[in-house]
Amino acid sequence: MVGEDKPFPTRAALAIGSLVTLVVLLAALPWLLSDYGLSFMVSVMSYLVLTVAWALFSGPTRLVSLATSAFFGVGMYTVAMLIKLMPLYATFAVALGVGALLAGVVGVLTLRIAGMFFVIFGFGLSEMIRQLMVWWEINKTHTMGRYVFVPFDATLIYEHLLGLAVIVFFVGWQLRRARLGLALMVIGEDETVARQVGVNVPFAKVAIFVVSAMFMTMTGALMAPRYGFINPNFAFNPLVSFQVVIMAFLGGLQRLWGPALGVIPLIILSELLQTEFPFWFSVLLGIVFMVIVYFLPRGVTGLIEDGWKALGRPLELQRGLTGPLVDAWGWMSRPIILPRGIAGAIEDVWVKIAPQTKGRR
Questions:
Q1: What is the chain's Cα-based Rg?
Q2: Which class for 88: exposed (0-12), middle (13-18), buried (19 or more C-beta within 10 A)?
Q3: Span 139-151, mean pLDDT?
């Protein structure tokens, strides 16, 4: 009816509207940026998907995975191997299936171990697949790489990665509202307690590991057409795994959007270090990681949350503004007291000397 006040939009409606606006603006960037700017945004979007996908698994379970380069490389190399035999989107589908199958097998076999052993296994998995592909190329195909020439330019790659980023954020948002997300948080706190309350720990860990790996694999598949030539050392580069971990810790794991805050700063820093200090890049990147862990244990997200709490908390003075003024005035108006004056000081010296004189007599 006329004259009735319209209800204010809820927080969810505002958030959805803001996200839709952001996605529309990001989708329009290919027509606004130069070739270098578009190439930079392709890198940003690919690492954004990888980092958020990594956080889907490692965030709640608190298991640090270094297997990102394994699934990324599987997606990329599957497309490179099948691109001459199948249509492009068919190779994407096959890569996604291979990545999911590999993640399922690896998850069932390894997610019962934890701590440093899981970290070592993740890194070893990437190296094992890389060495197997090198052996296969040298001994079976007698080559050392694959050519990927398809009409899939940087604009199409960026748009597909943007769509994949929207999907991974939606999956993460739904996951935190679902029973599986709650189960994973309990597992991250204490697996023993999770089992006692009835959580199927192996299934939950394997399920989220497979979901995370599928996004990583798809990212690698989409990035394959960006490069004209792909070899195993390039596709299964272990540096991808380490950069994703550093980005996630820099951004923070407290919020779903936290890891995204570490992507752009680290990409800029990586390009700067690779350009200025190419031979010291790995060492400097390790130093950056140690600095982040030591000085920013909760990442940029933690700094934002602490700053927001500080702004929302009133400034409290126990005695108000007048208390410090009264204390200062009282101290300044206090008289200077000499307990016994100069005469007292002379008497003290005399008392010390007098017994010695009496002893000599």
A1: 31
A2: middle
A3: 84
* All structural domains of the chain with their residue ranges: 14-237, 322-360
- How many angstroms separate the Cα of 267 from the Cα of each of 153, 240, 344? 21, 11, 75
From CA 94, how far away is CA 80, in angstroms rounded? 12
Q: Which amino acid is at 137?
A: E
Rounded Cα distance, 59 and 254, in Å: 8
Among 289, 303, 310, 288, smallest CA distance to 64 is for 289
pTM above the 0.85 mark?
A: no
One-letter amino acid of 306:
D
Residue 249: half-sphere exposure toward Cβ, Cα within 13 Å: 21
* Residue at 352: amino acid letter: K
Residue 150, both tokens: 């398809």
Distance CA 285, CA 283 (A): 5
Q: For the chain, first and last CA: distance in Å?
A: 116
Torsion over CA: 149, 155, 160, 162 (sign): positive
Q: H-type helices in 137-279, by residue range?
A: 154-177, 179-189, 191-196, 201-223, 232-235, 239-251, 263-276
pLDDT of residue 294: 72
Distances (CA, A) of 312 to 59, 282, 305, 306, 307: 27, 41, 11, 10, 9
The position carrying tokens 């394997």 is: 206
Supply 117's token pair: 């052993």
Token couple for 332:
């300044």
Give tens-digit pLDDT for 81-96.
999 889 999 999 999 9
Q: DSSP 3-state assignment of 291? A: helix
How many other β-carbons are positioned within 10 Å of the β-carbon of residue 7? 6
206-244 pLDDT, tens digit each: 999 999 999 999 999 999 998 888 888 888 988 888 889
